[in-house]
Write a structure and sequence with these properties.
Elements: H1 3-54, E1 58-59, H2 60-68, E2 77-84, E3 90-96, E4 99-110, E5 114-124, E6 141-150, H3 175-180, E7 189-196, H4 219-249
Parallel strand pairs: 1-2, 5-7
Antiparallel strand pairs: 2-4, 2-6, 3-4, 4-5, 6-7
Helix pairs in contact: 1-4
Amino acid sequence: MTDIEIFAARRNLPVFTGIAVLIALAILISLGTWQVERLYWKESLIADIAERRASAPVPLADIERMLASGADIEYRPVTATGRYVNDKERHFFATWRGRTGYYVYTPLEVAGGRYLFVNRGFVPFENKEPEKRMPGQLTGEQTVTGLARNKLPGKPSWVVPENDVAKNIFYWKDLEVMATSTGLDKASVVPFFVDADSTPNPKGLPIGGVTEVDLPNNHLQYAFTWYGLAAVLVVIVVISWFRGRGRTSQ
C-alpha cells in the first residue's frame, strides 16, 4: 500500500467511526423510547384492570356477549347460577401463599345445559381428593361471583410440563382438554373460566379468591438503561474527540 493509500484510509476512518456511532446511538435511543411507550401502555393496562375489578358483577350472559363482540373480558366481575358437577372437577397444580396444592376447577351447569368451569379455589396437596373435603362439595343450586378469565390459546411455554390427564393434574389451563377429559362436549362448555371470589366454603375448602394480578412494570428501568448507555456512548465519543485534538495539536 502506497503512502497516499495509507493516508486516504486513515482519513476515512473517522468517517466510518462516526457513522457507526450514529447508528449505535440511534438504536439505543430507539430502544429507550420504545420502553417509554411500553411503560405508558403497561400503566394504562394496570389502571384498566383495577377499574374492571372494582366494577359491579354482571350476569354471565353479558360477559358472553362481550366476548362474542371481541371485547376483552379478562378480570371482569361476573355472577353465574347453576349446579356444580362435583364428580367432574379438574385439579390445577398451584402454589398459594407458600403452600403447594391445587386449584379446583369444577363445571357449573348453567341454564341451557351448558357448563362453566369455575376455579373454586385452593386446596392443599393432602386435600386433593374430594373425599378429604366433602363439606365443600356444594350441592343444589349455587350462585358464584368471581372474575372472568380468558382461556389460554396454547401451552404458555416449553418449560411448562405436559398435563397429566390420567392423574387429573393440569400444569396449564387447557379448557378443551379439561372438558373432554370429563366427558363433556366442548360445544356445551362456556369458552372462558371464572375465578370464584373469597366467599367462604364449608370447613374452609376450597379457599376462594386466589386470583393474582401480576403484571411486572420494569419499563422505566429499562428506558433509563438504554438512555444511559446512549449518554455513555456520547461521553466516550466526546472524550475521544478531545484527546484526538490534543494529540494533533502537539
